[in-house]
């Protein structure tokens, strides 16, 4: 991995850790602040709200700045948000701090993906983006369990201080390893960035992200009750199985990046189809412990195989404003998180069974596949027909009677 890409991956590792660590510390936070666990759960939503609000706004507002400067500034804001979280005296201040922590998330991944793709040869762009996202998937294997354990033994505030230290290291790595660049051309700016979002193909690509990753979160949000209620695992085993999901996500991320460099659209279609198939098989897989473990691994692999293709597809559709479109795609991932969890919860609340959220996810994956197919149809309609070849012109040439005959 190039050192500059390593700096981006370290930043992604820190962001991925802080995004998911709150889920494992809800009881500790609730006890310390004297609130209920559901109320503490709103702190997860606060982070997601920060991502949705911050991603397009920061990407558009910083369009005229060198991307290296933007990445460093975003990581500094990330550190500030986590320090404020660790020092928050009460629930309201912690809610605000979590929102601040989420603000740089989408723009960092959005701008970082554009930078990573720009460093690579055309045939290796998806692989380069997947290496940056490697930090996010490894965070689910190492970062989140480690920060959760730290918070459980030393207090939840220690977990956020630990994440802040990672952020400081990432900031230093970005400053040292990411090469300086020229400022964007004078024509670049907010108006040009926003104009890119008027494109139907861009919105179809964003819709594919919402539906495709909504399918993942419809099932993953309720993976614990599936593992304990259907597969018969003890609650203490869930953490290990979630690490297995992280392994699958890492494999899928690397595989998707490699395959997308050969066929971007084919990898996207294949990944969404595989995700729909895995989710459809969940009721069967969750009937045994071995099947459940395989299902968790395959879920991570299938879902994250589509991550880099989705990111590159959005950037491809908005070539005039890749930073804003790429950041908006990160907001779409978080909308998918919220919408998928809500839809999966509806299936569960309707009494359709403990594995019913996975079937709801199947429907969302198929919806994402339909959005991708619609985008493909729109592209074909807009692509001009190729000009006639020389052979075609010669074959259809009608001789002029006034021309002299060739002997």
- Briefly note the CATH topology name of the largest domain: Growth Hormone, Chain: A
Largest sheet composition: none
According to CATH, the homologous superfamily of the largest domain is MFS general substrate transporter like domains
- Oligomeric state: single chain
User: Based on DSSP secondary structure assignment, what is the total number of beta strands?
Assistant: 0
By secondary-structure content and strand pairing, the structural class works out as mainly alpha
Mean pLDDT: 83
Q: Any idea how many domains?
A: 2
Radius of gyration based on Cα positions: 24 Å
Our count of helices gives 18
Strand residue percentage: under 5%
CATH-defined architecture of the largest domain: Up-down Bundle
CATH class of the largest domain: Mainly Alpha
SSE string: HHHHHHHHHHHHHHHHHH
Q: Which runs of at least 5 residues are low in confidence (pLDDT < 50)?
A: 389-398
Distance between the termini: 67 Å
Q: What does this 3D model show about the protein?
A:
One of its GO terms (cellular component) is plasma membrane. Its main location: membrane. The chain crosses the membrane at residues 38-58, 70-91, 103-122, 129-150, 156-179, 200-224, 230-255, 267-286, 292-310, 331-352, 358-378. InterPro entries: MFS, MFS_dom, MFS_Efflux_Transporters, MFS_trans_sf. It comes from Streptomyces tagetis. This protein has 407 residues and is mainly alpha-helical. It folds into 2 domains: 1-181, Up-down Bundle (Growth Hormone, Chain: A); 196-382, Growth Hormone, Chain: A (Up-down Bundle). It is 79% helix and 0% strand. The chain contains 18 helices and no strands. The radius of gyration is 24 Å and the shape is globular. The relative contact order is 0.14.
């Amino acid at each position: 991995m190039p050192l500059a890409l390593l700096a981006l991956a370290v930043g992604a590792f820190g962001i991925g850790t802080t995004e998911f660590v709150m889920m494992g510390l809800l009881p500790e936070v609730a006890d310390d602040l004297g609130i209920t666990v559901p109320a503490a759960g709103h702190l997860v939503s606060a982070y997601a709200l920060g991502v949705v609000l911050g991603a397009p706004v920061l990407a558009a507002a910083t369009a005229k700045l060198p991307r290296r400067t933007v990445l460093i500034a975003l990581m500094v804001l990330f550190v500030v948000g986590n320090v404020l979280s660790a020092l928050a005296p009460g629930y309201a201040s912690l809610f605000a701090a979590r929102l601040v922590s989420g603000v740089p998330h989408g723009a960092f991944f959005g701008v970082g993906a554009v930078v990573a793709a720009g460093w690579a040869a055309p045939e290796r762009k998806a692989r380069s983006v997947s290496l940056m996202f490697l930090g996010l998937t490894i965070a689910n294997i190492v970062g989140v369990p480690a920060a959760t354990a730290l918070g459980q033994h030393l207090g939840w505030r220690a977990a956020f201080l630990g994440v802040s230290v990672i952020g400081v290291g990432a900031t230093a790595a970005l400053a040292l390893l990411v090469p300086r660049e020229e400022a964007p051309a004078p024509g670049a700016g907010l108006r040009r960035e926003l104009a890119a979002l008027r494109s139907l193909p861009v919105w179809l690509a964003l819709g594919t992200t919402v539906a495709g990753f909504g399918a993942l979160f419809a099932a993953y949000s309720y993976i614990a009750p599936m593992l304990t209620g259907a597969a018969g695992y003890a609650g203490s085993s869930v953490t290990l199985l979630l690490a297995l999901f992280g392994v699958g996500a890492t494999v899928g991320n690397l595989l998707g990046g490699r395959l997308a460099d050969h066929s971007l659209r084919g990898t996207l279609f294949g990944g969404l189809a595989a995700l729909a198939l895995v989710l459809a098989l969940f009721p069967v897989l969750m009937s045994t412990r071995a099947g459940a473990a395989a299902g968790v691994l395959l879920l991570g692999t299938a879902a994250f195989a589509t991550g880099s293709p989705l990111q590159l597809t959005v950037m491809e559709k908005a070539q005039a404003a890749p930073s804003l479109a790429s950041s908006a795609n990160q907001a779409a991932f978080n909308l998918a998180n919220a919408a998928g969890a809500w839809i999966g919860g509806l299936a569960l609340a309707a009494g359709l069974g403990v594995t019913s959220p996975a079937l709801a996810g199947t429907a969302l994956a198929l919806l994402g596949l339909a959005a991708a197919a619609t985008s493909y149809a729109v592209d074909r309609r807009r692509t001009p027909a190729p000009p006639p070849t020389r052979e075609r012109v010669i074959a259809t040439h009608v001789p002029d009677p006034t021309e002299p005959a060739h002997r």
